[in-house]
Each structure stands twice: as structure tokens, then as C-alpha cells.
Amino acid sequence: MKIFDEIESEVQSYARSFPRVFNRAKGEFMWDEEGRQYLDFLAGAGTLNYGHNNSIFKHALLKYIKSNGITHGLDLHTKAKGEFLQAFNDHILKPRNMEYMVQFTGPTGTNAVEAAMKIARNVTGQQNIVTFTNGFHGVSLGSLAATGNSHHRDAAGVSLVGTHRMPYDGYLGDNIDTTEYLDKVLSDSSSGINSPAAVIVETVQGEGGINAASIKWLQNLQTVCRKHNILLIVDDIQAGCGRTGDYFSFEEAGIEPDIITLSKSLGGYGLPFAVALIKAEFDVWKPGEHNGTFRGNNLAFVTAKAAIDHYWTNDQFSQEIKRKGQYVSERLENIVSQYGEGQFTAKGRGMFQGINCVNGDIAGKITHHAFQKGLIIETSGADDQVVKFLCPLVISDENLKKGIDIIEEAIREVCEKQDIPEKNLYFEAS
């Protein structure tokens, strides 16, 4: 369709990598208007953990619409909101001994991050937020200030302030615990670092290149936060809702964030929905002090409840994710060993993994070849050098294997035609 070229903004991005007009989707598949089928390893950038048009959610949604259920509710009390809150409390929070107030923010992840940082500043009276290298938290100005990616930061048009960047786990090498550095500068009154209101962290950095923090590093980070009376915010917008195996990405570490942000797959069906989970003692908002017209997307409440009721009332789904994640790990390690020649590495955990290529050009060629073979998969990282596996969590074993087979074939073809350059040590001193 020429209409996209004629009047859609140049800001479009995914459409440039996958130049087709798509008109149908089901489960882990999408179809273009010519009827060609594509296996979807992008999954709405993590929004479609439960696949496209999940039949369970569709049934609940259609039933709600047919009954003239409320669609838009601002922050009014509605039956759909109440039922979601009850399900979330009964099946997500209570079984994990978690006690949080649920703030319904505007419907996207960046809205939740903005709210989290704002409430932290209100609680502590401090302005500074510690964030990490390669972190991505959104592109509204507050979230963007906490985001590392220069491509996005350069588009701000104004100075981005209120944050201080620290090295993420592994940024300075495998043997350096960067939380020790954070503790040091916070303990030194002459370090030049203003006392922060909070630390915001992704346990697995998605946009930043599938960088997974170790369990020990996350535990140490919480210790540092507690020592210095700093709130700990975990941005679980992409890594949460089962992506790493457990519902929350930090469960294995046993940490207790003060604030958690959720979005993307929270709504289940792909409908916009975001929340900030706030420990009760920090829920100091005045009525209407932070708001958003579309914080009452009742259709998303319905499908979110359906997702919890069907997938999260026991650990069966979690165990399935972990089993599939182990398969992905084994396949990626085998691929790297066979074709990487020491230049490719596997990264991530659970169903949130990727292949780190020598540079973005190689990764781009791999994903391009994969798309030609019927697989939609994106890249991430500072130079788009990581082939990012983000398929629906409900994908069948057969199609999971098929998708990875396509990537393996694409890597083999690219390696046969390409002189692999020397490894680019992105973050090491020259």
C-alpha cells in the first residue's frame, strides 16, 4: 500500500525491517496480505507472551463486549478492574508473600516508569535516580533520561537530567562487581554523586542487548540500596510476566523491590495496560496527583484476568517456560559453538535470550535472511548486534525448533558468504 509511504511518519522502524502488509495473526504466526505465513519471534516486542489472538482471552473479551461491559473507565471502580485486582492479588501477589499497592498508570510502559520515578522522588525528597549503562526505560522525557541508548536520547530536543548512570553487571568485565563501585561512591561524601531517590534496573536488559544480571549482583544491589536508604525500582516491563520463567524476573534472586513496573504482556491480548506496584508505605500520592486518561482500559483488565486465571494459578506454565528456555539455551550454545568461531556468544535467560554477533551488520544480515525464510526476529544492543529471541511463551515445541532451525540456517548462509571481522569489544578500552 502506497499510503504508508505517502503519509506515515518517517519515525516508523519495525516496518522497515519487515516490509510487508500483515493482516492476520494467530498464536505464533502472522500472515501478510498475500497469504504468506511468518513465524513470529518478535511477539510485539514482548507484548504477546501468550501469542496472537489467544482463544481463551478472545472468548472472555467477546463475552464482555457483548454484555456492554464498560470499555473506558478512567480510574472509576468497575467490575472488570475489581476482578483483575482480585485475581492479581490471589494468584500473583499472595502466593509470593508480596504486598503492594497497584497504581494504574497510563497504558504504556514508559507511563509506569515515569510514575515510579516520580513517587520515589516524592517519598525521599531526593531528585537523582541511579540508572545503568545500556538500560532502556522508555522515550518520554523522564524515562528517556534513564535510558542509555544515544539514538533515542539524541531525539529528546532538551537536556535530559535527574539521573546518574552506573555500570551494569558485567560492563567492566566478568570479575568486577559494579555494585561495589556504587556502594563506594554513595559512601563517599566527596564522590560528587548526589544522594539518589532510587535505583532503577532491568534484571535482563532487552533493548540494551539481552544483558542478564547475575543473581548475586541483584542481591548485592538490593543490599546497597538498603544500606543507603535508596528505593529499588525493578523495571519488569519486558522481562516480567513469565518471560524469564517466573512471573517476576527477580524471583530467583529473592529480592524485594520497593517499586515494580509492569506493562507489555500484562494485558495478555496485546491491549495497552501498565501498572506500578508500590509498597504501601511509599504510596504517598494525593488523589489525582498522577493520572492518565487511559488508565482505565477495562478490556485489558478482562484479558489480564483471563491470563492469570488460565496460566498462573499454579506453577505448570512457569515450568513449561523454564523447560523451553533450557532448550533455547542448549540450541544457541550449539549454534555458537558450530558457527561462531569464537566471535558469537549466547546471552540471556529463560525465554529471553539472544545471539551476540561480532557487529550489527552481521546481525542484520542474519535477521534479513531469516525473514526471507519466514521468520520475524529483531536485533537489539548498542549497535543492533544481538539477534533477539522473543517468541510467544506458548509456542509449540515444534515451532520453537522450526524458528531456531531457520536462524541456524541463516547464520550458516551468512558465515559462508561473509568474512567475519575481528570481534568488536564494544565496552572495553581501546
Automatic annotation (TrEMBL):
The cofactors named for this UniProt entry are: pyridoxal 5'-phosphate
* Pathway the protein contributes to: Amine and polyamine biosynthesis; ectoine biosynthesis; L-ectoine from L-aspartate 4-semialdehyde: step 1/3
Q: Which GO terms describe its molecular function?
A: diaminobutyrate-2-oxoglutarate transaminase activity; diaminobutyrate-pyruvate transaminase activity; pyridoxal phosphate binding
Q: Which UniProt keywords apply?
A: Aminotransferase, Pyridoxal phosphate, Transferase
One GO biological process from the UniProt record?
Answer: ectoine biosynthetic process
- Protein's UniProt keywords contain Transferase: yes
Answer yes or no on keyword Transferase: yes
Lineage top rank: taxon: Bacteria
Q: What Enzyme Commission number(s) apply to this enzyme? A: 2.6.1.76
Q: PANTHER family from the xrefs?
A: DIAMINOBUTYRATE--2-OXOGLUTARATE AMINOTRANSFERASE, DIAMINOBUTYRATE--2-OXOGLUTARATE TRANSAMINASE
User: Which family does this protein fall into?
Assistant: Belongs to the class-III pyridoxal-phosphate-dependent aminotransferase family.
Q: Which NCBIfam families match?
A: dat, ectoine_ectB, PRK09264.1
Q: Could you identify this protein by its name?
A: Diaminobutyrate--2-oxoglutarate transaminase
Which species is listed as the source?
Answer: Cycloclasticus zancles 78-ME
Lineage, broadest ranks? Bacteria, Pseudomonadati, Pseudomonadota, Gammaproteobacteria, Thiotrichales
